[in-house]
Amino acid sequence: MIISDKQKDAITELINIGFSKSASSLSELTGFRVLLNLPDVKVLPIDELSPVLKELVPEQISTVHQVFSGTISGDAMLILSQEGSIALTRLLVDEPLLDINLDISMQEVLTEVGNILLNSCLGIFGNMLKIQITFSVPKLQLESLDKLIRTLTIDTNGLSYALIVTMEFQLRDKSLSGFLVLVLGVTSLERFLDEIEKLG
User: Fold this and answer.
1) Which domains does the chain have, with CATH numbers?
2) Contact 76, 65 (CB under 8 A)
């Protein structure tokens, strides 16, 4: 399925609104000004996800994963390198980078970041497109990229697509990149694009 430039621009604008809301929530939560930049959005078949992600992220990653359902349904996840996860959580809580592992408190911070980001974006989809979306409780997983891709492929029923959003966190004069990935069945993607067309 090929999306038009107009559809891509509309998706980008929706996610931008969600990111603005997320950045405000993170700034309020931490007391630091947090910005989220949105450089790129791609939509591709699920079987092309592996080579694309392998170019973008290292083998060991942290993911905050949330299942959503309703008029459109699928999997949403925030993906960061494990090194990026540690750096981001330390910046958010204003602590020096002393540990090379994510301890329990850092895992809780990262889960909350994912929760804010995913809920804001999915919530904006629901509000702007006037569709019903419900979310599961987000789960943090520290895993390999290969394992994540295998899980997505196995769990997928029928033809699916991945929407990959490259993003950048900016706080305290530092920049860290991450990725928001939405996996949608073909029916959900078609409904999503149909609803986006109505916005125009």
Assistant:
1) 5-199 (3.40.1550.10)
2) yes
